Each structure stands twice: as structure tokens, then as C-alpha cells.
């Protein structure tokens, strides 16, 4: 990639090797393609091939056509060995210090013109950024997104379920973080495995098989397998299926399987219907109670978007290779989202009044959760944006739960109302600010929630983000305050050499952590990595537990067919 600024303005030239792309055969072809240009000072987006205002670049049906592409035969064979050394030190009631070294290899092999086989031995992710911590003020599972490059590649092909919400998915049939990460975030060694993805006979194909080792006190060895098929048709229509198989090895081992089908039917240019259904098979659980399905319909015009959905999850539904936020429920969702663009009104570019609803009921009829979100987004031509709204919230608590140390929420039904305001300055500026403030009822009491974020950038060398999540909660059972503070800093010496750090403090766990990474990249996911991690658990003063680790890792890309 090269960029240039001249009398004509700004330009960028990109070189994309054919071997990084997948295409049918060789010879002259026509490809769908589009380009987007963002003029930040005017809040303007332009596209090479026009896209209706309500859609994004992801709408491939609106792409233009690139003709005369003469493609070479598809050949790909890459080897990526690595070696690392690390030193770990723990200080606490029982202190220890250890040193270790390791090695492994990844490989990428082209199989025909449409398939790629990825192989891995003694897989390591020491260079991956640490997880961002979260505050849990509810009784449901938290979702931590995948960050490991091996699993992020072609992840969309394996995505089956109900995802894409602000708070993470409710159902994901395959959640790659189950592989190599145990309870409480403990690292589990991946002995090896493989993944086959691509196109075969007009079908998108995805197959994955991974084996993890046993870790004493954490988990036995496991064998993970996934098979995915997907057929894409014209007009945003597709259908497919997926099977997962988790074989728990060990003395009391067993097998958990899931079977899922999904599809989307495009109706005209603006409407679609989405379907999903799945069953799981677990010893001791009845399959007629181990089901989930979803029906969703939506229509997206230039001025109004509407959607409606229904989901049901049986009491024994148990996708152990996936993610399930809650069990045993029916869910209704609905949305009306409108867009208006005035010609000239105090610099206003667009305002978007909308109403969302989501409600969860247990299968016996108990109303577990409900949320009306009534809001308007006001976006100005200067890049300033403000969201003003209210939430009507219902929470049905079946069992007492401890929301904070010494503070319990009793079983009851709580009806509360919140008001919220969100402010965003122009994110294209060197300094930008975002803040969301929510004030209102919370489990029969009151809560003030503030999440300010400050972004600071200096040219192309330095970027930073400072954020905080503050909760001040007053409940009949007690009062408490939580703080989650994060700082992410990046300094680039060149496009290939840079330093990244992530600093976090979580008052709920009373833990401070730092993840610092020096990266000298040869290519994507290969090069020299120097990683320093430090975690400190506080229980007053002095510090009770402190863990430090230093890791040096080097991986190299051998392109055998270059």
C-alpha cells in the first residue's frame, strides 16, 4: 500500500495478491466490487457503485462489476513456524517463578481452486491482546468476543444462531472461545487441528477439528469438531446447516452434539425473512426439550426500517460448543426505525426516531425480562451527534442473587424506567469524546450509569482511548459503586513496527492489569512479538497477589510457491 498527497488531493494504491483471494478457476472473469470514500469534514459517504442510503458496503447485491480480470491458477502453500520463551512470576501466599520454551507451526494449503486447508500444531496465541474486562450487574452470562486470528479467519461462515445485538448474541451454535480457554479464562493447550474452508460444487464449505490437552483442576482433554454447509442464491437468499461435536475425553467423558439449520429469503430488494432451528444431544437430557428456533422478518426502506422476531429455547437446549446467554425462554422482538433528512435545520444532517422492544418469557409464562427503548438520534453535519431516549424495563427475578459483595437482589418482579442521553463529537478529529449516561430505576432502587470515552490521535503515529464505566447503585438491600477504567495506547514507528498497551482496573474484582505488546510484523500474524503481562489483585494494602509474565515469540512465513 502506498499513499500520496498532491494537487489532485489524496490517493492510495493497494496491491492485493491473487493468492490471498478465492475464485473459480483461472482465466478471464468478472467480479463484483465496490469502493467507499468518507469525507469526514462534511459527514459524506460516496460509493463507486451507488448504494441506497439505508444500506452499507455489506450489501453485495449493490456492488459494481469489474470485468476483464485475468486470474492465474490458484496455488497456495505457506508454512508459519514459531518459537517462544517465557518467564512467569507469581507473588502471594505461595510465590513461584517458572521459565519455559515452546515451538509449533501453522500451515496454509490451497486445495484446488476454491478450498483452503489451515493446519496447526501446538497452537499458541501469546501475541493476542488481553480481553477487555466487563462489569456484570445481572444474572446472565457475559459474552467476550474472539480475538485470536486463527479463529477470526472465515468466522462468519461458522456463525449460526441469533447474534448481532448491542449486548452480544443470545445464541451462537459455535463459539470458538470454547477451544483453548477454560473456566475463568484459564489457558488450555491446543495440541493441534485443522480447518477446511471455501467453495465446492457451488456450496460454501467449512470444517474444523481441534484437540486440546488436559489441565489439572481445569478440564480434561477435549476434541472439537464442526461441519458447516451453506448454499447462496440470488437476491440475498441462502440456506445451510451445521453440526458440532464435542467429545469430552477423560474418565467420565461424554459427547455433546448439536444440529442446526438456517436460512434467509430475500423478498424483493427491501425485505427478508430469516429462519434458524437447532437441537442438541447430551446424555441425561431429553432431545424433545433440547431445541431452539427463531423466525425474523424485516423490511428496510430509505426512510423506515421495521422488523419482527420470535425465538424459543427449550429447557434442555445445551450447545456446549456454543454460547447461550439464558435458557428456557420465549422471546418477542420488534422495531420501527425511521430516518429524516431536513434541507436546512440548524445544521442537522439527519434525525432518527425509533422504538425497540424485546421481551423474554419462561416457557411456563413467567415474564423474565422486558425492555422498551424509545429514542431519537440527532446527527449534525459537523459530526456532532446526540441520542435522547428512555427505557421501560421489567425484570422478573426467580431466585435471589448477589449483585455485589454483601448486596442481594430478592426474588420479585421489578418495573423501572430509565432516561438516557448519549453524546458523540466528530470522531474524525484528532480529539473526540463519547459519553452515555443512564439514570433511573434498577431492581427496585436507583442507578446512575456513566460511560465516558476520550479518543486522542496524533497524525499516523499515536492513537489512544481512555474509557470508564461508572455505576452508582442504591438498592433496598444496600448501596455500592463500581468502576471499570481502561486505557488503550498505540504508537507506530512504521506500518510494521508498533507498540500497543491495554491497562485496566476493575473495582468489582478489585483487579488491575496491564497487557503490553511490542510487534515487529513480517506479515499478518507473523514476526517478532515481545509481550509483558501484569495482574495485581488488591484486598486493601499491601498487595495480596501479583502475577507477571514476559514472553518473546518469533514466527516466520515461508511462502513455498512465491
In short:
The protein is mainly beta.
Notes on the protein architecture:
The protein is an all-beta fold and 562 residues long. Among the domains are: 2-68, no CATH class; 141-325, no CATH class. 1% of the residues lie in helices and 61% in strands. It has 1 helix and 36 strands. The chain has a 24-stranded antiparallel beta barrel. Strands 10-11-20 form a 3-stranded antiparallel beta sheet, with no helix packed on it. Strands 1-2 form a two-stranded antiparallel sheet. Strand 29 (445-458) and strand 30 (462-475) form a beta hairpin. The radius of gyration is 25 Å and the shape is globular.
Descriptive labels:
562 residues, 1 helix, 24-stranded antiparallel beta barrel, mainly beta
Topology:
Elements: E1 2-6, E2 9-13, E3 27-33, E4 36-39, E5 44-47, E6 64-71, E7 77-91, E8 96-111, E9 115-123, H1 149-152, E10 161-162, E11 171-172, E12 190-200, E13 203-212, E14 222-233, E15 237-248, E16 255-267, E17 271-281, E18 291-300, E19 304-313, E20 323-324, E21 329-338, E22 348-361, E23 367-380, E24 385-397, E25 401-404, E26 407-409, E27 412-424, E28 431-442, E29 445-458, E30 462-475, E31 478-492, E32 497-506, E33 511-523, E34 526-537, E35 545-555, E36 558-559
Antiparallel strand pairs: 1-2, 3-6, 4-5, 7-8, 7-35, 7-36, 8-9, 9-12, 10-11, 11-20, 12-13, 13-14, 14-15, 15-16, 16-17, 17-18, 18-19, 19-21, 21-22, 22-23, 23-24, 24-27, 25-26, 27-28, 28-29, 29-30, 30-31, 31-32, 32-33, 33-34, 34-35
